[in-house]
């Protein structure tokens, strides 16, 4: 079954180029040219990924991303024309899994898309459960429960938590986590890790400032206890 991706950008020539390139890899591509149209399509269709521009008419990409995260865990890659770090962090804070800065190389876009699709692809096997105290991770369906309450995590937040849970009491620096989860060729910086850890704590910890699960060893890195 083909993967299906929604490409959202108000620059039609960019959408056309991305659509053509992805279709060469046998990926089904749907398109939208403003935020409201994109959100409507996401509510009515099942996508394997969303490629979402920040600067959009009617609703900007950040607003679309926030709205999507209220009902879906679909991986989202933000496209931004700004190289400002705050713009990148804002995308992650609003629930995006990754970002790509314009102008971009289409081969980079395809590589990032394929990497995320490989990690989030559905497996037709029995769901594997990792239990740690009152925390449960279903690794195939990518669901997380804390005290029997389901927590809505993004794809990257899930991968960070899964990696730490599978390596309990081992401290990992930001650079190591970036390498293990995002990959050696990821062009972003280590602050990406900090943003995801903070968002993860806000969701799974009762008191994020006094974490029960994901801890900080100051000056070294993060670990799961």
Quick rundown:
The protein is an alpha/beta fold and 225 residues long.
What does this structure look like?
The chain is 39% helix and 21% strand. With 225 residues, the chain is of the alpha/beta class.
Query: Domains counted in the coordinates: how many?
Result: 2
Order of helices and strands: EHEHEHEHEHEEEEHHHEE
CATH architecture of the largest domain: 3-Layer(aba) Sandwich
Structural class based on helices, strands and sheet pairing: alpha/beta
Percent helix, as a range, is 25-40%
Largest sheet composition: 5 strands, parallel
**Quaternary status:** single chain
Q: Beta-sheet strand percentage?
A: 15-25%
Head-to-tail CA distance between termini:
39 Å
Going by CATH, what is the homologous superfamily of the largest domain? Response regulator
Question: What is the mean predicted local confidence, pLDDT?
Answer: 87
Features:
Rossmann fold, alpha/beta, 5-stranded parallel beta sheet, 2 domains, Arc Repressor Mutant, subunit A
What is the topological layout?
Elements: E1 4-8, H1 12-23, E2 28-32, H2 35-44, E3 49-53, H3 61-68, E4 76-80, H4 85-93, E5 98-101, H5 106-120, E6 129-132, E7 135-138, E8 143-146, E9 149-151, H6 155-165, H7 174-182, H8 191-204, E10 214-217, E11 221-224
Parallel strand pairs: 1-2, 1-3, 3-4, 4-5
Antiparallel strand pairs: 6-7, 7-8, 8-9, 10-11
Helix pairs in contact: 2-3, 6-8, 7-8
